Each structure stands twice: as C-alpha cells, then as structure tokens.
Amino acid sequence: MRHEKRGNLKMATPHNAANMGDIAETVLLPGDPLRAKVIAETYLEDITQFNSVRNMFGYTGTYKGKKVSVMGTGMGCASIGIYSHELIHFYGVKNLIRVGSCGSIAKDIKLGEIIMAQGACTDSNYAHQYQLPGTMCAIADYELLKTAQETAAEFGYPYRVGNILSSDIFYTETPEWQQWAKMGVLSIEMESFALYCNVARAGVKALGIFTVSDSIVNGEELDAEARQNGFTNMMQVALETAVRI
C-alpha cells in the first residue's frame, strides 16, 4: 500500500515503532538490521532499542557523549526510501550517514579501501516522483563529506572520494558496470541515490560511506577477517563524523 506524506506524528509509523524523541538527530544507516545491532552493541553506550517492526532493528545510544542512533534500511532504493523518509519527516532526523559495503569497478581501487560517495548515479526510476524537467544530480552534504574525509586522513585510512552507482540490479544479465566505469564511477551499491534524493527534497544532510568488499573488475573479495577489520575503519570514520558535525 502506498502512503502519501502524513502530518506531524507523535507515535509510530507503519514501519517504525519509535516515539518522538527516541531517535537522535544523527543516524547511521547500514542495510542489514543485524549489522545495526552489532554497531549499537559494539560502539554505543547506554543503548535502547526503538524499533523491531519487520525485524528492521533500530537503536539509540551515545558515542563520546553524543546521542547517536543506528537503524537498518534493507536493500535497494525502495527500502531506504521508506525508512529515510520516515526518519526525516516523522522523527526529525537531520544527519543520515549510510554505512555499508560496495563492489569496486575501478581497476586501481584496493579491497578494504573506504569510498565516500560525493555523488550517486543510478539506473533506478526513484527520482521520477519529483517530475523534474531533466536528470537529478544526487550529491552528498559537503560538511559531512569534508568531516569524513578529514577524519579518514587523520587516522591514516586509505579512502577515495567520488561518484558511485546505486543500482536496482544485483544479479545482472549484462555487464553495464563497464559503461559506468568509463565515466569514472568508483563502485556499485544499491541505496545512496534514493537517500540523497530524500535529503535534498527535505533540506537535511546525508553521506554514504562504504568499505570495498569485492572487485567486480577482477573478482577478488575480502575474507571474513579482512571484512571485519575494514568495516571497523569505516565505522570509526562514520562515528567520528557523527560527533564532529
């Protein structure tokens, strides 16, 4: 069922059981709800769970004394479009930081590097709702991006800043990634375009930060231990960004 934008809400939405005030103004958004649970239990103090509807877990706690929330979004533009819209319009969230993995399509990017999505291309039709007389350029918030870049440099983590592709297709019939690579796109994930559209329309801030977990170019992928260590670097950058803005 499709829902139009609703007015001010004091209680739950169809997808989120939180009450007003339960969610911080800054929220980290992994796709996997179980990763949201791990992030909360690993990095946050004094955590409380505000959502379990559809097993899309959400938690609020503190990091270095600042209130921060983390919530899963599911996979794809449609899913993150719902959850980010509700967080922004119904719960007053101002800063949305997507954290996840991505597949590199650039030959010189190494596994484990951090990608910060300055912009998001897409093969999705998500932006058709705005009835724009042209093509939407979906970009990150500069303040968030600058803070994340400075944080990664401070910690000495390898990172790239550039364009990514938010694709609706995971198992593709054609190697269209090669065409995107020719345009300088660094990597592929599935959600950031919708997130960037939602925040642009609402006048709030977002940034996508990713760990390169595999290379579509050469078929390499991180093993379990390397994924854990690499994601730790990404999470430190995201959390430090959250408390510095």
TrEMBL record:
E.C. numbers: 2.4.2.1
Record's GO cellular component terms: cytosol
Catalysed reactions, as listed in the record: a purine 2'-deoxy-D-ribonucleoside + phosphate = a purine nucleobase + 2-deoxy-alpha-D-ribose 1-phosphate; a purine D-ribonucleoside + phosphate = a purine nucleobase + alpha-D-ribose 1-phosphate; uridine + phosphate = alpha-D-ribose 1-phosphate + uracil
Sites where the protein binds a purine D-ribonucleoside: 15, 189-191, 213-214
Transmembrane segments: none
Sites annotated Important for catalytic activity: 227
Gene3D superfamilies: Nucleoside phosphorylase domain
Catalytic residues, chain numbering: 214 (proton donor)
Its biological purpose: Catalyzes the reversible phosphorolytic breakdown of the N-glycosidic bond in the beta-(deoxy)ribonucleoside molecules, with the formation of the corresponding free purine bases and pentose-1-phosphate.
HAMAP family: Pur_nucleosid_phosp (MF_01627)
Protein name, per record: Purine nucleoside phosphorylase DeoD-type
Lineage of the organism: Bacteria, Bacillati, Bacillota, Clostridia, Lachnospirales
Gene from which the chain derives: deoD
